[in-house]
Design goal:
Elements (H helix, E strand, L loop, with lengths): L1 H28 L20 H13 L22 H8 L3 E5 L5 E5 L13 H7 L11 H4 L3 H8 L20 E2 L7 E2 L20 H16 L3 H34 L4 H15 L1
Antiparallel strand pairs: 1-2, 3-4
Helix pairs in contact: 2-7, 6-7
């Protein structure tokens, strides 16, 4: 029994020491915390920054859409961010989508406003084949799928490190890049944003920071287009509940005021009822 107890204690000690050694190593390979960014949509009174969202759409169309799809986002929803119906129609017609002709054959046609943003690849295998066997994620819910989603996107776009600045001991496989905000610091997507890579329609200077902020704004809207409406509804509900609480309090005070002043209305009711029974 004693030898068994010693064996158990030795095993527990070895496991504890092993975990103690493993945790720092795991922390060393973990992603850097995303930068703290003040987005206009944050907080209970936040609002959409529509010019930034429109610029983010431009970044997505000119850079991100060559690899990443944007599922479940119809072109018609772009009217919510300030585009006219004619502008949305013109944007949609720049894309090709599948359709079935009268003979049951698949054909391509210009997209309409009711169509969704098409995928850049016909299937997952084709996407992997074009991206060094890495599958580009769907961006329509990326800010919901990642912790601190908007800040994550903003930071990831700026987290690439030059080859000369990669920490010692880090080895990257062909087609991998070092990014401070990626878990493990290894990412298959090369750096995408460079200064003035996009010529914004509104004349805004396309710095890497500005493009990162704009694409984060756009993808947040794509994931939750009704977020601001829900916030407003919540504020309205809280306002209604506050007014209702005040009215209920005032009503309660008025109803119970005679009782607090010593009146006993129920005794009058009982005496009146007894008198009526005696008369009967």
């Amino acid at each position: 029994m004693r030898s068994c107890s010693k064996t158990v204690r030795a095993g527990v000690l070895a496991l504890t020491m092993g975990l103690g050694a493993a945790l720092p190593a795991q922390a060393a390979g973990g992603a850097k915390e995303p930068m703290d960014v003040d987005f206009q949509f944050e907080g209970p009174f936040g609002t959409w920054n529509y010019p930034s969202i429109q610029r983010g759409l431009q970044v997505y169309r000119q850079i991100c859409s060559s690899c990443h799809k944007l599922e479940n986002v119809p072109f018609r929803t772009l009217t919510q961010i300030g585009f006219s119906e004619d502008e949305v129609k013109a944007i949609a017609e720049q894309y090709q989508v599948d359709t079935i002709n009268d003979y049951g054959e698949v054909e391509q046609k210009p997209a309409g406003t009711n169509d969704e943003f098409p995928s850049p690849f016909p299937n997952e295998q084709a996407a992997k084949a074009a991206n060094n066997n890495a599958y580009p994620p769907n961006l329509s819910l990326i800010t919901k799928a990642r912790e601190h989603g908007p800040e994550y996107v903003y930071s990831l776009m700026q987290g690439y490190v030059e080859d000369s600045e990669i920490p010692e001991g880090v080895s990257l496989a062909p087609g991998q890049y070092y990014n401070e905000y990626m878990d493990g610091h290894k990412i298959s997507m090369p750096r995408q944003l460079y200064p003035m890579m996009v010529m914004y329609d509104d004349g805004t200077e396309a710095t890497v920071e500005q493009m990162s902020r704009d694409i984060a704004n756009f993808l947040t809207w794509a994931a939750e287009p009704d977020m601001i409406d829900r916030k407003r509804m919540g504020i309205n509900v809280l306002g209604f509940l506050f007014i209702l609480s005040v009215l209920l309090y005032m009503t309660t005070q008025k109803v119970w005021k005679p009782v607090k002043e010593g009146a006993t209305p129920w005794k009058d009711i009982i005496e009146r009822d007894q008198a009526n029974r005696q008369d009967a």
